[in-house]
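Same chain as my last thread, 223 residues:
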Amino acid sequence: IVDIFGAGLVLFLMVTGRIPFESAEQKDYYYKYLHSNRPSKFWSLHFMTEEGENGEDYLSDDIKSLIANLLDPHPIRRFSLSEIKAHPWYEGEVPSHEEIIQEFKARKEIKEEKETENAKLSYQETATSTMYQDSSVLEGTICRGIGISDDENEEVELNRECIEFDPDFTSHTKFYSNRRIDDLWYCVAKFVKNYTKDVTFSSTEYNMVLRWIDDSGGKPYPH
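reply #2:
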């Protein structure tokens, strides 16, 4: 009987990739619905999204029925070996090796497409946020653009290009980072605002020219 229950745990883990419950006790968030003979509620909770909505239920009724009977908390009602072998899921067709390969290949393609789409959405959201930061963090700053119109009412599209790294270029402020260049640009702009409000930005490159007063001599320094 214990082995049957354990088989139910393993089968659940194999088809869902997670454990069915934390402990086989009535107080457990999931197990209590098996204990009260409410398997439909048990399954609906497992497929519920983080927002509390019903998620995609990708399991067949047969496999859910078998697992629920394997995990039945009452030993007398729990399936025996003969009942397992007579169950529709156990008697179902077994896919060939080639069919399994094709199925996993199709799943992988779908997963990669979703990941690519999510990455694009994430990049667009970050880019939009950076555009907002570009203006809001420098509020009250003289942001003169290099090579753009002096018309203050003219909308300027920020489409800066990153200059290719030159390893032979001598610089005492060189550093490496895995962060997006727009994020670094925002951090530099925020830092600059603490020292001066006289800044000239390039609209085509990640480049800025600023002037601040040297505390020692009172002379403005171009940078």
